[in-house]
Write a structure and sequence with these properties.
Layout: E1 2-10, E2 20-25, H1 30-36, E3 38-46, H2 49-68, H3 77-98, E4 106-115, E5 118-124, E6 128-133, E7 136-139, H4 146-152, H5 158-161, E8 183-188, E9 194-198, H6 200-203, H7 208-217, H8 220-233, E10 240-248
Antiparallel strand pairs: 1-10, 2-3, 3-4, 4-5, 5-8, 6-7, 6-9, 9-10
Helix pairs in contact: 2-3, 7-8
The structure holds calcium ion.
Calcium ion binds near residues 44, 199 and 238.
């Protein structure tokens, strides 16, 4: 299987900075590609301006670096991906400790490693991963926010969460504690599936159905552009980032 990939990030219409960061890693060596696949990462920095920008950029780069360097490490891609995110978290915490004069930096992070037909997703925070199949978007991640926790416990109606004052309040992120729980998900991919990663700047304005429609109607690059445009047309309250990976059957 090969992939059509598009990655797009945009400042949105209200923020002065873009605190989201995107990254991708494709090993050069065929043996390494077979073993580790390809990796896509989105992070959404918190802490404001420079701290948020630095946190998300470092988290993306360090996760890629740690995953790529994990060649000798035992375990499957999912375990190695979780270990890479944990290592990136420790490095962020260390950077915070080394620079107490700076604002403490934190970030969300969602990462997808695609190894053949295996999809491994790691998540901390409220960025998301979806698998779109047969015109429907299936959410593969859980938001680590105060309101998502309330919805899961039945204390808040799902519809009310979007307007709740604590909707962006994270219960888990990278950079604050040296130990972080990384959620992992595993799926088998079929030709025609589309993997979507995004920051909350997209899902604040755009529904799961609209994400499925966009990737159904367009190729990866046009779909990414259409989704960012839709978020901005609806207010663009936050930075918006999206990665779209279309899984194609034939080999090139
Ligand atoms: Ca955000």
């Amino acid at each position: 299987m090969y992939h059509q990939v598009a990655q797009r990030t945009n400042r949105g219409r209200r923020r002065r900075h873009n605190e989201d960061a995107l990254g991708a890693w494709t090993p050069r060596a065929a043996a390494e590609r077979t073993r580790s696949g390809v990796l896509y990462v989105i992070a959404d920095g918190v802490g404001g301006a420079a701290a948020g920008e630095l946190a998300s950029r470092c988290a993306v780069d360090w996760t890629i670096e740690e995953y790529g360097a994990a060649g000798d490490r035992a375990g499957g891609p999912g375990e190695r991906l979780a270990a890479a995110v944990e290592a990136a978290n420790r490095r962020l915490c260390q950077a915070n400790r080394d620079h107490p004069e700076r604002r403490e930096m934190g970030t969300t992070l969602v990462a997808a490693a695609i190894v053949g037909d295996e999809l491994h997703v790691a998540n901390v925070g409220d960025s998301r991963a979806y698998r779109v199949r047969g015109g429907a978007a299936e959410l593969l991640t859980q938001d680590h926010t105060v309101t998502a926790g309330m919805v899961r416990r039945g204390e808040l109606e799902p519809g009310a969460a979007a307007r709740h004052p604590l909707r962006s309040q994270l219960t888990r992120c990278l950079g604050l504690e040296p130990e972080v729980k990384v959620d992992l998900d595993y799926q088998r991919l079929l030709p025609g599936d589309v993997v979507v990663l995004c920051s909350d700047g997209l899902t604040r304005h755009v529904t799961d159905e609209e994400i499925a429609q966009a990737v159904g109607a367009h190729k990866a690059r046009a779909a990414a552009r259409a989704l960012v445009r839709l978020a901005n047309r609806r207010g663009g309250e936050d930075n918006v980032s999206v990665t779209i990976v279309q899984v194609c059957s034939a080999t090139r």
